[in-house]
Amino acid sequence: MGLPEGPSYVLKSFPEGYQLYDHNKGPVKAPRHDPYLCGSIHVNRFRSTNEFIPHALWLMQDASMDRSNCACKYCAKLPQRIISDNMGLSGMSARRSASIAGALPSSVKSQRVRREPRQPRAPPKPYAAVRRAPRPARTLVGPDQYILPEKDLDIRAALHSADDHRPRWFRKGEVLWCLLEPPIRGQRPEEDIHLWPGLVEDVHIKTQAVAAPEDSMQEDRDADMERLYKEAADDGSGAEDVSRDPSAAGPSTPPLEAQAKLPWKVQQWYVYKIKLLGTSQHAFVTDEQVLPYLAYAPSDYILDRAREELGEFLQAVPIDQMDRDLDLMSTFDPLEPEPEGEEPGSYYAKYQRAVAPFTLAIQIASNLAQYWLPTDEWECKFIIPPPGSAAPGQSGPSSSHATPPPSQPPPMQPPPPPPPQATSLHSLITQSLSQNAIPPPGSGNTRPTMEPSESISTHGRLPRSSTLGQTVIQTRFQGLWWGTERIWTDELVRLKIARCQFAPKGTDVIYPPAGPSHSTLECMKDNPEAAHADPQRLGSSEKGLFMRLEGLFLVDVPNPDGPGMIKECRASGMVYELVDDDWVEVVEANKPAEVNGAGKGKGKAVDVPNGSNSPRANGELTFMSQPSPLKPAPLPNPDPTVPVRETASAILSQTSPEAAAVANNAKNARDLSAQLSHPVLSTPYPLPPATKGFKFRPILPPDHEVVVSLSLISGRYYPGLFHHPLMTPTVAHALSLSTDDGGLYQHRHLWAMEGLLPGIHQSMEPRQWRKSRVVMLQEADKEARDRFRDRWEETKMARLHPPRAEEEQEQRPVVGTSNGEVAMEVD
Question: Which regions are flagged for Pro residues bias (predicted)?
């Protein structure tokens, strides 16, 4: 810069516009200081002195301010190391540090401690020892079968009910009725299309914070102030002391129990992504905008108008256009805005375009209701005990005694056989399942007819002769596709039969139907029609049955079409009936008869015909061929070889592994088999609420279950369905009908959905098994489109080749046809 050499120079000030900043980084108590020089219009900041020196020289020496003359790393686009070497700045930092260290006085310099010389050490000795060879760590084997997370989530969401949102009834893959807003209007209001069938593709939760009502906020404030006034009145002496000495009051703080009231509330609801059948459109709806498939059916007015419009549409549509769009049928959007205008022609055009996809959607849903499939299989391994290990009181192969119904005293029984040595409650339950899996002789896989006068009975079978227990691996399932519905085990389903068809008088293990409550009888006194009716019909006898679906499994049954065995899927679980909510259980009347012969009175044995292992009581078949095998045996005599301190655990382990686990303070958790089928003592989910005014009552003693064919299942149970916004008008209309118009029986399909009538009045009727839900959807869609294509081909041929006058004269007397046209039927 032309300055004389010798003296040391420092920068008097930074160039105009430049300023040094100290950037603190790291913890507050010990931050790291990073100095940055800012102010250049070309560079954001300079990080060190060496970076700024070339730029400063350019600012001081170049009058043209041409940036190409600047040699800094940012303007020259060169590494800082090369620039420092060219300008001799590389050793500047090292020299500066050395000069600072040399300027320190000798007293400040630290003196190095002199280290003592090391003593020579002897070389280490080699190590040698003998030990046991280590074993590898024992790896824990996790379960290879588990409860499906989707099942647990669906059941818990259906049982959860709160004021802020409704329970989630519907599941992925189910077919529902989706509300159209606005509806597709026809020529008359009763012809309007309000609901469209759709498939649930996804479900998610939506959350929103809304402002709390002012009334509730004001009530909360008033309640808080009243509480504070009361506290001040109770503490009058303290107030006087504070008024005399304000400093004694301390800081003003709210009471500890005072809670702040938020000015908003959080609302949550479920949103369903629905694929509208017959189209390519999707709809996002809430629980208030969808209905179960069985809860609604298009009226006759809608179906008749749809058939008429479909025939007119196929006669008017261009042939080439229909051939091109036949496989798609997806251009129509049921949710498109309604055309403006009040004239019928302005909005009826949308109705005419909706007829073809609407009939196709109804047919797809109807086809899908014909399919079923058990899903998520797992293997349940259990041991069937030999006949000698049956519980006391069980009938042997040659036994002809039967336990009478609870209303009669039990007969005298012979002394029980010796108790088993290793019989668990779980093995007894699985033995019962295996017995129910064997059908009675001569019975085929036929569907029962639902006549009111019929009574359904279940026959038991004795175990096969074997000297040792048999280990059986049974295939079970966690879920079931039942038509348009997704059913899981551990939830309540409706059955087709009425209570009066299932042991109408009760048996040794089935309670008789419950009668009406006292309040119901009092109310019926003022009704002349009900006064002469049978009181039992006012109870649960005429109502439907429910089953907690605790097991889905496969059994081998004889092939009805030929020799050999085939697989059949059956369901098991506890059965419930509907009773009045104030109905009182009569324990003495409903208690099952004891099997040890204790009781008064005499019993008479009834001979059993040859070829039948089912004993009879009073000439009627009982539910099982022997007293329940689910009752554990009495405690056996202690084994003298077992130490005294372990006697209790040893005895319990022979009769009840669960009790032995508690006695030994073992891990009190159910294994995987118990979690999936949980046949012992507990169930993981509570029962859903019954319809208003009723409650559920089990019709079997504890530790019993019923095994039925899947054909007896009607479908899912939706608690509170009558209170759904879309169902309220229909229920109100059904209750308002007079006897001349059909009365309540005209809408029996509604009452069957809540169990007030047998489920046969509104049920799924699947008949065909398919290997997956995807295959069901594909075949249902293909079959519906094939039927539509056949109908179009017939109409097209009639249009291309119209009949001659003679043929038209012959076809004129035919009733119900037009130009040889056959209406497309909708199942």
Answer: 403-421, 629-641
Buried b (16+ CB within 10 A) or exposed e, 794-819: ebeebeeeeeeeeeeeeeeeeeeeee
Average pLDDT, the chain: 73
Q: State which amino acid sits at residue 763.
A: S
3-class SS of residue 243: helix
Distance CA 471, CA 449 (A): 36
As given in the structure block, the two tokens for residue 570 are 């059956």
Residue 270: its H or E element: strand 264-276
Lowest mean pLDDT among 178-182, 248-252, 547-551: 248-252
Which residues does 652 contact at the CB level (< 8 Å), separation at least 6?
659, 660, 663
Count of CA atoms in the C-beta half-sphere (13 A) of 701: 19
Residues forming beta bridges with residue 691, ordered by sequence position: none
For the record, the structure tokens of 578 come out as 């509907």
What gap in Å lies between CA 233 and CA 223, rounded to an integer?
15
Classify residue 594 as exposed, middle or buried by CB count within 10 Å of its CB (0-12, 13-18, 19+): middle
Output the furthest CA–CA distance in the chain (Å, rounded). 137
Question: What does residue 649 show for φ and ψ, rounded to 5 degrees?
Answer: -65, -35
182 prior amide bond cis, ω within 30: yes
Measure the CA–CA gap between 323 and 685, rounded to whole angstroms. 53
Long-range contacts of 581-585 (CB under 8 A, 24+ apart): 581/517, 581/690, 581/693, 581/694, 581/695, 582/517, 582/518, 582/519, 583/514, 583/515, 583/516, 583/517, 583/539, 583/695, 583/697, 584/517, 584/518, 585/697
- Stretch (H or E) spanning 796: helix 773-800
The predicted-structure confidence for 399-418, as pLDDT tens digits, reads as follows: 333 333 333 333 333 444 44
Token pair 């019954």 is found at 690
CA distance 368 to 278: 13
* Per-residue buried b or exposed e for 353-374, using 16+ beta carbons within 10 Å of the residue's own CB: bbbbbbbbbbbbbbbbbbbbbb
CB 249, CB 242: distance < 8 Å: yes
| Residue 380, C-beta contacts closer than 8 angstroms, at least 6 positions apart | 430, 473, 474, 475, 476, 553, 673, 676, 677
Q: Around Cβ 572, how many Cβ atoms within 10 Å? A: 24
SS3 706: strand
Residues in the chain: 827
Q: How many CB atoms lie within 10 A of CB 710?
A: 16
Average pLDDT over residues 154-180: 88
Global pTM value: 0.60
SS3 call for 176: strand
Contact 739, 690 (CB under 8 A): no
Model confidence over 435-451: pLDDT tens digits? 443 443 333 333 334 44
Residue of 480, 574, 542, 564 whose CA lies nearest to 756: 542
Mean pLDDT, residues 620-634: 39
Q: How many CA atoms lie within 13 A of 748 on its CB side?
A: 13
Q: 263: which 2 tokens? A: 């000015």
Structure letter (DSSP) for residue 427? H
The pair of three-digit structure tokens given for residue 503, joined into one six-digit string = 């042991």
Distances (CA, A) of 667 to 30, 362, 601, 704: 52, 53, 47, 26
> Cα separations (Å) of 824 from 9, 350, 780, 792?
104, 21, 16, 10
Interaxial angle between packed helices 300-316 and 344-368, expressed in degrees from 0 to 180 and rounded to the nearest 10? 110
**Cβ–Cβ < 8 Å for 748, 757:** yes
In angstroms, rounded to a whole number, what is the distance separating the alpha carbons of residues 775 and 794? 28
